[in-house]
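Exercise 7. Given the encoded structure of a 115-residue chain, write a plausible sequence.
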């Protein structure tokens, strides 16, 4: 039995996921908690946030994040990919930095516009 705290809303329900009983989730106050508990135990995913280098003297780093969640076990590999990125200005918020990360359909995107 895994115990989790749901992070889908501020309520923070204390979930229990029974791995021996078809991953039954209890303790959730809403359907989102049930989905979160099941997914967290069977295939955890995370949104990754970081920064990358730019050619701007005023803003030498640009914040980036994935536009969706990627498998948790790929987080450190994703961070390593960002080490080689050096964005040319101008950069517009929402610009794709790395497309289709690990064939997941998820992209790293810029979170700030830099002229």
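Solution.
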């Amino acid at each position: 039995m895994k115990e989790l705290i749901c992070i889908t809303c501020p309520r923070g329900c204390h979930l229990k996921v029974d791995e021996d009983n078809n991953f039954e989730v209890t303790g959730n106050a809403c359907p989102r908690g049930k989905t979160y508990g099941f997914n967290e135990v069977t295939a955890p995913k995370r949104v990754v946030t970081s920064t990358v280098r730019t050619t701007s003297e005023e803003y030498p780093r640009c914040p980036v994040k994935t536009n969706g969640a990627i498998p948790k076990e790929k987080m450190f590999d994703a961070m390593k990919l960002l080490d080689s990125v050096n964005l040319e200005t101008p950069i517009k918020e929402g610009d794709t930095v790395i497309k289709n990360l690990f064939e997941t359909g998820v992209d790293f995107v810029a979170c700030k516009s830099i002229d």
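Remark. The two ends are 52 Å apart (CA to CA). Students should compare their own answers with the one above.
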